[in-house]
Amino acid sequence: MRHAPVHTRIPKAYSHPIPALAAPPRPPSRMSATPLPTATPASTSTLASLNTLDEFLMHPPRHWQPRGLQRAGLEFLWFGIKEARSCLFVGLFFLAVFAVPRAGVLGLPRYDVLLLAALVIQVAMVATKLETWDELKAITLFHIVGFALEVFKTSSGIKSWAYPDFAYTKLWGVPLFSGFMYAAVGSYIIQAWRLFDLRIQHHPPHWMAALIAVLIYANFFTHHYIGDYRWYLAACALGLYARTTVVFRPLDRDRHMPLLLAFVLIGFFIWLAENISTFAGVWSYPNQLGAWSAVHVGKWSSWSMLVVMTFTIVANLKHIKAKIHVPH
Fold first, then answer.
1. Which sequence spans correspond to the domains of the chain?
2. 3-class SS at 25?
3. What angle do CA 147, 209, 85 make, to 5 degrees?
4. Residue 270: what pLDDT?
5. Nearest Cα residue to 135 out of 267, 6, 31
6. Running DSSP on this structure, what letter comes out for residue 8?
7. I want to staple 312 with a disulfide (CB 3.0 to 4.6 A). Which of 47, 191, 213, 222 is the partner?
8. Helices 230-240 and 259-279, axial angle in degrees (round to 10)
């Protein structure tokens, strides 16, 4: 996705009628068949607090009957709170990125401290049942996919960016924490799916979605040798998801939005996070070494394409796949 070397970086027509997708009054239990880690008193307290908040967000008081501008304002507020709650992993991890000094902590290099922080956050989310074991497997896949991309992009023959600081937990010149930047996107989608009670209408056949996701990922590697086919792949994704709609519930009523718009919006906010991070000096691109300037807008398209790939992986989780309508 980043095609220029840098000195410092921390990563960061279906004609059949649509069957009704009725939303259950209460989401099914998120308990996995596999036993989860035993909760400590502290994690039990955290779980109770978060469960109370999530229950309130997903099931607001029934006597609330706002109308007109009041409803619009309340739905917008609820939407924002749910979005922030869905970014729990992202927020905590970015807090660590900004809080840990470049010199490290107590003699431990910065990259290693960030890896420990990411692991603690991830373990806590599983221990408090905010994520199930199946979801953890998907997030781990995001980590592996992202780390492999990092290894390639920082290799001697490519050098799109580099990790100059020392760390004990570097493999092939890449700190292990870098994969969590990609896993954080998957964690956000998983959390948002539950909190917004997402359902998908007119989703393309899963094998087609998987194929375009694989091609998108491959293009991040092959464009160094055979040209960048990003916009051809974007056109394919546009045709594939043209009729796909996401049904979500910001407050107490279902709302609809084109799934393609969701991809673009998520990609935009990731791109915005890159701008904020580089402005704060967390990492820099070559054109930002003398004075800060906005990250090239082309990175927005790269992130949006990555969101398509991430969504495809999440959509194959069993409890999520049940809420996806694929016309036959």
1. 71-258+305-321
2. coil
3. 60
4. 85
5. 31
6. B
7. 213
8. 140
DSSP structural state of residue 63: T
Q: What are phi and psi of 201, to 5 degrees?
A: -110, 145
- The CA-atom distances, in angstroms, between 152 and each of 155, 171, 173 are 5, 12, 10
Helix (H) or strand (E) holding 200: strand 199-201
CA–CA separation, 34 and 205 (whole Å):
29
pLDDT of 134:
81
H or E element in which residue 245 lies: strand 245-248
CA distance 200 to 258: 10
The residue whose two tokens read 């706002």 is 66
Strand partners, 201: 245
Burial 91-125 (b: 16+ CB within 10 A, else e): ebbbebbeebeeebeeeebbbbbbbebbeebbebb
pLDDT value for 137: 84
**pLDDT value for 45:** 63
Q: Residues of the chain whose pLDDT is less than 70?
A: 1-48, 161, 277, 280-290, 318-319, 328
The predicted structure's pLDDT at residue 119: 92
Asked if 214 and 186 touch (Cβ cutoff 8 Å), the reply is no
Tokens representing residue 98 in the block: 């900004």
Q: Nearest 5°: phi and psi at 108?
A: -90, 125
Distance CA 249, CA 197 (A): 6
Q: Distance between CA atoms of 153 and 182, rounded to whole angstroms?
A: 14
Instruction: Specify whether the CB–CB gap between 241 and 204 falls below 8 A.
Output: yes
In whole angstroms, give the CA distance from residue 158 to residue 155.
5
Helix extents (H) in 31-132: 41-58, 68-86, 88-99, 110-127
Q: To which residue do tokens 């990731």 refer?
A: 270
